[in-house]
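Today's session is about reading a structure prediction critically. Students often jump straight to the picture, but the first step is always the sequence itself: look for stretches that repeat, for charged clusters, for runs of hydrophobic residues. Only then move on to the predicted structure, which in these notes is written as discrete structure tokens rather than atom positions. Here is the chain we will use throughout the hour.
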Amino acid sequence: MIWILVGVIVVLLAVALAWMKVMQYKAIAEIDARKSAIDQTVKGLTDQLEKYQDLLRQIEEDRNRKYGNLESELKNTSSATLRLQESTNRLNNILGNVKLRGQWGERMAEDIIQYAGLIEGVNYTKQQVNTSLTKPDFTFLLPNDHKINMDVKFPLDNYLHMVNAQVPEQAEMYQKEFIRNVKE
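Below is the predicted structure for this chain, in token form.
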């Protein structure tokens, strides 16, 4: 009976891993799409900044004849640069924040667990301190008071290195590191 449950759990974990991999690919595609959108925005802002620079040169040439909107144009340029900097910082924080990636991984794992029909408090608990004073992300409740603990990890760095590797040897090396990170 336990072996059947272990087998079911292994299958569920395999399904969860596959689902997580699909979600990782979707997330990476979404990140790439956002990066592309930001790149387009940056290009637009760069073009706009070049236009502002041309305008500033014209204003400086005309300054002896009239005093115009130089201060206003400088404020607009500064505001556009500040918005660009804020957007870039937000993107870097999302991609570089292990905690945010971890929260995303926990959410994906819980979605998979619930999709598999497991019920919190009946089949599993979330982030409960156990007897060894650790706090796993999920504890699966098995018959005869047996438990299996699961910590969710999202090793994005080696995965991105693997996907972006230029040569197959690099991709293979990063794939091994990614798999090692997942198993840790």
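Discussion point for the tutorial: The two ends are 28 Å apart (CA to CA).
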